[in-house]
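Per your request, structure below.
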C-alpha cells in the first residue's frame, strides 16, 4: 500500500489484545473502524480477496429479538446488488457474535474526506447524490430502509460512492432493547418521523441524503451537531440552515429536507434532477476529474486494497495444505441453502473459448482475465454421449445418455440387462422432472470482471467466492469446470429443454455476441440439483458492467 497523503488517517489499525483473531472461519488482520453497532475488521477470503467483517456489539448479540431481526435484515441485504453498495459476501446470524461480511472498498468515508479536505464542490456533490440515490433504490427495492445514512456510512472509491451498513440499523432500531433508551441512528441526519419514533419509509432515507449532501457541500450539518437532544429538536421543529450551501444545490437539498415525507422527492426524481442540473448534463458519471485532486490522491493512498496475508507454506506433494473453509451459518429466515464460501475454483488460466480440436484450451484473452479450461472434459463427454447413443440404437432400445456423473437414485434408471453395464439416466423430459422454481427474474449486475454471479444465492459476489458461479471476462461468460451449459436456439428455454440440450448439445463457450437480444442460456450445477436459466440484458464495452436476469430451479433428492 502506498504512503498516506499528509493529514490522512490510516485506513486500518492493528488488532488490540481484546479483539478476536478469527470470526466465522475468517482470520482477522486489522480494525477498519468501530461504531455504535459494532467493530469492523479487515479479513480475507481463502482466495485472498479482502472483506470488511462487522461483528455486532455484545449488548445486541445478547438480545434474542435483535438476533431475529438481524437475521431478517441480513436475508434482505443479501438481495441488494446495486453498483453503489458494498456487496454482502458472508454472514453468521446464529453465531455467538453475529457478524456480516461485505466486499472491502478501498477508500475513505465521506466524513473522513470532508474532515481532511473540507467541503466538496458542486460538480462532485451532484454525482454523489445520484450514486447514493441509486444505492437507495437497490436497498428500498428489497424492502429495507437504511435508517442510518450519514457521511460515515458512505465510502468513496475512485469510481463512485458505496453505501454500507444497510439494514443493520433497522434490526437494532426495532429490537426490544431500544426501549431502554439506546437510540440507533445519528441525530443530525434523522428525519422528523424517525426522531419522533414514527414508522419510517424510503422517504426517511431521502431526508438523510439531503442532510448528507448539505454537510459535504459546506462542511456543516443542516441541523447542527451538538447535544443529541438539541439536534433532534431542530430536526423536528426548525428549518435547516442552508446558508453556507452553494446556491446551485439549495433547492435540491431543501426539497429532500421537507418535514412531511410526502413532500420529499423520490430517488428516481432525485436522479432526474441531477441529470437536469446545468453543472452535470444528461449523463452524470465518475470520470477521472469528478473528485478534487487532493481527494483522488487520498483514495490512491488506499491502493487497490490491503496486501493479502501470506498463504501457508505448502506441505508435501502428497498432502497439500488445504484452504480453510469459513463457517457459514444459514439464516433461519431464508429458504435457500447456504453456500459454502471459500471453495477454490478450478478456473485455470485459459479463456473457456472452446476446443482447438485437440482438447487444448484457447489462448488467453487480451484482458488477461481468467476462465475455465473446459475443453478436455467436454471432449470426453461428447465422445461418451455419442458412443452410448450408438450402442442404444444398435440394441434397439431407447436413446439414453450416460455421462461422467453417477446416476441418481429414484430416477427410474436401471441396469442394462444382466451384463453388469452401468446404470443410465433417462433423456431430458424425465431428467427435468421434479425441478421447482427457487427464484425468478432476478436482475443482477456485475460491475467488472472481479465480480461473479452466485447462481445458488442469486446475488453478485467477489470472484472466487461462490461454489456454483457464472463469471465473465471482457467478451464471454465463464462457468466452473464441473458445470454444464447450453444456449437456446430461440427466445424461450424451459428446464426440460435445458437438460435435453446439455445432454445432447453442451457448449464450451458463452460469448456475449451470441447472447444478444436476451437470448437465453442455462447452467446446471455439478450435482445436477440446480438449473439456472440466464438472459444477458446488457454488457458494457471494454469489460465494464454486465447485467443479467436469472431464474433458478431446484430439485430435491
Amino acid at each position: 500500500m502506498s504512503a498516506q497523503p499528509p493529514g490522512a488517517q490510516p485506513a486500518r489499525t492493528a488488532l488490540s489484545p481484546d479483539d478476536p483473531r478469527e470470526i466465522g472461519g475468517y482470520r482477522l488482520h486489522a480494525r477498519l473502524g468501530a461504531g455504535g453497532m459494532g467493530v469492523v475488521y479487515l479479513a480475507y477470503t481463502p482466495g485472498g480477496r479482502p472483506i470488511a467483517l462487522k461483528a455486532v456489539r455484545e449488548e445486541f448479540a445478547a438480545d434474542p429479538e435483535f438476533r431475529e431481526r438481524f437475521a431478517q435484515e441480513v436475508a434482505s441485504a443479501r438481495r441488494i446488488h446495486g453498483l453503489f453498495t458494498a456487496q454482502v459476501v458472508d454472514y453468521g446470524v446464529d453465531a455467538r457474535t453475529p457478524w456480516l461480511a461485505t466486499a472491502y472498498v478501498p477508500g475513505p468515508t465521506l466524513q473522513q474526506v470532508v474532515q481532511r479536505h473540507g467541503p466538496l464542490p458542486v460538480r462532485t456533490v451532484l454525482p454523489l447524490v445520484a450514486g447514493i440515490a441509486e444505492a437507495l433504490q437497490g436497498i428500498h427495492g428489497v424492502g429495507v430502509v437504511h435508517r442510518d445514512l450519514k457521511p460515515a456510512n458512505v465510502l468513496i472509491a475512485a469510481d463512485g460512492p458505496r453505501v454500507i451498513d444497510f439494514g443493520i440499523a433497522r434490526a437494532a432500531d426495532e429490537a426490544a432493547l431500544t426501549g431502554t433508551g439506546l437510540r440507533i441512528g445519528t441525530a443530525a441526519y434523522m428525519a422528523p418521523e424517525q426522531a419522533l419514533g414514527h414508522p419510517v419509509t424510503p422517504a426517511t432515507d431521502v431526508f438523510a441524503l439531503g442532510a448528507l449532501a448539505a454537510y459535504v457541500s459546506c462542511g456543516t450539518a443542516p441541523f447542527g451537531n451538538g447535544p443529541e437532544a438539541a439536534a433532534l429538536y431542530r430536526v423536528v421543529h426548525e428549518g435547516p440552515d442552508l446558508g453556507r450551501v452553494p446556491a446551485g444545490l439549495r433547492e435540491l437539498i431543501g426539497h429532500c429536507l421537507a418535514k412531511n415525507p410526502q413532500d420529499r422527492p423520490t430517488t428516481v426524481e432525485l436522479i432526474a434532477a441531477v441529470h437536469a442540473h446545468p453543472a452535470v448534463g444528461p449523463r452524470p458519471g465518475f470520470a477521472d476529474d469528478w473528485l478534487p485532486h487532493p481527494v483522488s490522491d487520498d483514495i490512491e493512498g488506499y491502493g487497490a486494497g490491503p496486501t493479502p496475508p501470506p498463504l501457508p507454506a505448502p506441505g508435501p506433494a502428497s498432502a497439500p495444505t488445504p484452504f480453510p473453509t469459513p463457517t457459514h451459518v444459514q439464516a433461519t429466515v431464508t429458504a435457500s441453502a447456504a453456500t459454502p464460501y471459500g471453495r477454490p475454483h478450478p478456473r485455470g488460466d485459459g479463456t473457456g473459448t472452446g476446443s482447438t480440436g485437440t482438447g487444448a484450451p484457447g489462448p488467453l484473452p487480451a484482458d488477461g482475465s481468467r476462465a475455465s479450461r473446459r475443453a478436455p472434459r467436454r471432449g470426453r463427454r461428447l465422445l461418451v454421449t455419442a458412443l452410448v447413443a450408438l450402442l442404444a440404437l444398435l440394441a434397439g432400445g431407447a436413446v439414453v445418455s450416460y455421462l461422467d456423473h453417477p446416476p441418481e437414485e429414484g430416477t427410474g434408471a436401471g441396469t442394462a440387462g444382466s451384463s453388469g453395464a452401468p446404470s443410465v439416466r433417462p433423456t431430458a423430459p424425465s431428467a427435468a422432472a421434479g425441478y421447482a422454481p427457487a427464484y425468478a427474474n432476478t436482475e443482477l449486475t456485475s460491475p467488472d470482471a472481479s465480480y461473479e454471479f452466485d447462481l445458488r444465492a442469486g446475488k453478485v459476489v467477489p470472484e472466487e467466492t461462490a461454489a456454483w458461479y457464472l463469471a465473465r471476462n471482457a467478451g464471454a461468460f465463464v462457468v466452473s469446470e464441473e458445470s454444464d451449459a447450453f444456449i437456446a436456439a430461440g427466445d424461450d428455454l424451459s428446464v426440460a429443454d435445458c437438460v435435453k440440450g446439455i445432454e445432447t448439445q453442451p457448449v464450451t463457450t458463452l460469448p456475449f455476441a451470441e447472447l444478444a437480444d436476451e437470448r437465453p442460456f442455462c447452467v446446471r450445477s455439478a450435482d445436477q440439483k440446480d438449473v439456472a436459466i440466464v438472459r444477458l440484458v446488457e454488457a458494457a464495452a471494454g469489460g465494464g458492467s454486465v447485467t443479467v436476469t436469472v431464474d433458478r430451479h431446484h430439485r430435491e433428492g
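Confidence is low (pLDDT under 50) at residues 1-10, 176-183, 314-431.

Regards,
D.
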